[in-house]
Specification:
Number of strands: 0
Number of helices: 4
Distance between the termini: 29 Å
Shape: elongated
Strand content: under 5%
Low-confidence stretches: none
Number of domains: 1
Mean pLDDT: 90
């Protein structure tokens, strides 16, 4: 049976979290391009999938960070924590984008930019952590 807290499952969780976050990022890129082209509102299912993938990836990353330390030899030991913080803040800003758009019907372009910047920064740092 799969027990996520068993020692040998942490690399699998880290890689799975990374893949989920990359997929969320790719879908987010498509959503952002659609927003920039002013194609109207994004399909709600695509936005929902983007959010679910991002939160699932963040949850997997948080679980994987409970495992054995990694990256201590090459100086990337804290990169996982830094990536998790950036991605968590990106998730909070993403929720703010959703709420502002749905409840206030106000422009959200600036918030989308902040959300994307935080998420891309978190993914870049996570990539160094995963590859380290």
């Amino acid at each position: 049976m799969f027990n996520p807290l068993r020692q040998h499952h942490f690399p699998l969780m880290l890689n799975s979290a990374f893949i989920a976050l990359i997929c969320a990022g790719l879908l987010g890129s498509l959503l952002a391009v659609g927003h920039l082209r002013q194609a109207g509102t994004a399909p709600w299912a695509a936005g929902l999938l983007h959010g679910v993938l991002g939160l699932a990836g963040l949850g997997g990353l948080l679980l994987a960070l409970q495992g054995p330390p990694r990256g201590l030899d090459d100086g990337t030991g804290s990169f996982g924590t830094v990536a998790a913080v950036l991605l968590a803040v990106a998730a909070l800003v993403g929720i703010a984008v959703l709420l502002r758009h749905r409840l206030q019907r106000r422009p959200v372009g600036g918030l989308i930019g902040v959300h994307a910047t935080l998420a891309i920064g978190g993914l870049a740092i996570l990539l160094a952590y995963v590859m380290g």
